[in-house]
Amino acid sequence: MATPPPPLRRATLLLAAVLVGALASTARADLVISRADRRVDLTSHIVRVLSSLKVENVGPDPDSQVLLSSPNIQAKNLAAIRAFATEGKVKGPSTVLSIEVVQPSGAPPELTFFSALLPKPLEKGKILHLDVLTVFTHSLQPFPEEINQAEAQLVVYQDSAHYLSPYPVKVQTLAIRLPGGRVESYTRHPSAKLVDSELKYGSSEELPPFSYLPVIVHFENNNPFAVAKEVIREIEISHWGNVQITEHYNIAHGGARLKGEFSRNLIARLPPRAHSIYYRDEIGNISTSHLWSDSKKTQLEIEPRFPLFGGWQTTFTVGYGLPLQDFVFYSDGKRFLNITFGSPIEEILIEKLIVKVVLPEGSKDIEVSAPFPTKQWQEVKYSHLDIVGRPVVVLEKPDVIPEHNLYFQVYYKFNNISLLREPLMLITGFFLLFLACIVYMGTDMSISKSSPSYLAKLQWDEVQATVQKIQGIFEQCLAVHDKLEASLRDLSRTGDIQSCKAARKAADAQFKELSKELKPLLTSLQSSPQSYQIWPKVEDLIIKEREMQEKLMTRHSTVVDSFEKKLRGQHLENRIALQQQKIAALRQEVESLLEYISEI
Ligand SMILES: *[C@@H]1O[C@H](CO)[C@@H](O)[C@H](O)[C@H]1NC(C)=O
Ligand SMILES: *[C@@H]1O[C@H](CO)[C@@H](O)[C@H](O)[C@H]1NC(C)=O
């Protein structure tokens, strides 16, 4: 069954008609492109075009710029443009040219023009090799617009077989690299050739300026079309040794809307020494994210929790820490952050990226250096112990693609004394608290001295009784811990996942029940003046036990999950072993605390 050919955008046809009539008056006829080779890469959803041009000055005067042009309908999706030039016949080291948007007089309004400024004018008779990389987003149109999970995703790409230029072009080739699946249809100009998922067009007759010959190709592209509506990337510098990154994503699938269920994984490439990595969606931690690392990178695979439905959208947060010394440096009396701008997720298009750099409190003389224009402003972020708040530099950029993953710098001045402010505040705070305690204990003792001694004795007995009950509850908690451990041992013996999960559910219910029983006891203990000595230990006990409970539950689900999905591997084993070590250490602490309070 033949699929109907996709509609050629009307604008494209109109453009072709307009350009036929365009006058070459725009271009100074003294430049000629003697050869143009274009490679279009359509293997992902971000379209990359590399145009290698051989530009010749055939006129009498030197020229200091080369004009590049692009139809407005294409230019509006342009995310990046870069030009590199080499003068001479042989390709040598190239220089990066600065590019600006210009409007030559008499130019057709349907086109956007860029001027690549040459480092030195191109003399008469000389040749310049110019490589122009242009990157486009939103340029692959899903067709049909709606598909089932089982169907391949087909998209349409449109371009011109002729290099659209204000100069005459003598010889040219166009090679369109496709992802390798089915090719539904393509425009069959006489020069068209499809070989091994590469579609080629070419011409070796001299064509006048603004030659335009529409081509469309309709092909299969099953790559995830991850488009983030918005990403907020917070980079918080702590001079105590850490750069904390937190990235909030709001992602949509930009490809064909799916009629059925669908799920895709995303890969994030983090810097090599990233640590404390977490991934969280609206509901909480996701166990199905996988992590690999070697000396060059850390790779995180994110698998959304639920199968996602047609036109899916999801929000989640990725966080990780980086060593301070890898990203913050010191030179000329200033510190500076040097880090990449974009998202670590592969082949993602971010419609709006907001990068927030949170500097330590007390930073001054802040300056930003970015390799491309961004909207910039400053904010203040408060966290506990801050007095004046932390200065935040905010950078915003639309349509960010992997090509924008370049280094940018934030320079700032910081006095080391500021670093001591928070600890000093803490110390002062503790000292005041200590004084208050002394005063409090003094009054307390005078009360008990003046009270009948049996009253004090009663109070003390009550504390002891409460502590015993608390102790009993913690013993029960430990028994539940043991049951959980036993259920894992049973799992490896019997393979019964269901009863292992049931054990976890039961344990969860028991923990809740015990914590309910604990509450009134803690309130009563805390309100007793006799408990000042024992209370910190009880508090410590609660924290340690809670932590252990959480770790046990996590380990339990890690083991059950890997069992269920038949996952194996050194990394998983290591993770489980590490969790086990921490749990054992916590257990020891809990037991010794229990022993301590039983001796009062
Ligand atoms: C998420 O996982 C991390 C590490 O695995 C853990 O430290 C954290 O407490 C978890 N958070 C939640 C909300 O479960
Ligand atoms: C930032 O880091 C990159 C990669 O390490 C390096 O190439 C670049 O020179 C650095 N920039 C500055 C201003 O230090």
Automatic annotation (TrEMBL):
**Which pathway does it serve?**
Protein modification; protein glycosylation
Segments spanning the bilayer are 424-443
Q: Which UniProt keywords apply?
A: Coiled coil, Endoplasmic reticulum, Membrane, Signal, Transmembrane, Transmembrane helix
Mind telling me which GO cellular component terms the entry cites?
oligosaccharyltransferase complex
Keyword Transmembrane helix listed: yes
| Places the protein is found | Endoplasmic reticulum membrane
Q: Where is the signal peptide?
A: 1-29
Q: Which residues form a coiled coil?
A: 569-596
| InterPro entries listed in its UniProt record | Ribophorin_I
Annotated membrane topology:
Single-pass type I membrane protein
Taking the first listed entry, what is the main subcellular location of this protein, grouped into a coarse class? endoplasmic reticulum
GO:BP terms for this protein? protein N-linked glycosylation via asparagine
Q: What does this protein do?
A: Subunit of the oligosaccharyl transferase (OST) complex that catalyzes the initial transfer of a defined glycan (Glc(3)Man(9)GlcNAc(2) in eukaryotes) from the lipid carrier dolichol-pyrophosphate to an asparagine residue within an Asn-X-Ser/Thr consensus motif in nascent polypeptide chains, the first step in protein N-glycosylation. N-glycosylation occurs cotranslationally and the complex associates with the Sec61 complex at the channel-forming translocon complex that mediates protein translocation across the endoplasmic reticulum (ER). All subunits are required for a maximal enzyme activity.
- Which family does the UniProt entry place this protein in? Belongs to the OST1 family.
> Assembly state and interactors?
Component of the oligosaccharyltransferase (OST) complex.
**Name assigned to this protein:** Dolichyl-diphosphooligosaccharide--protein glycosyltransferase subunit 1
User: Where does this protein come from, organism-wise?
Assistant: Panicum virgatum (Blackwell switchgrass)
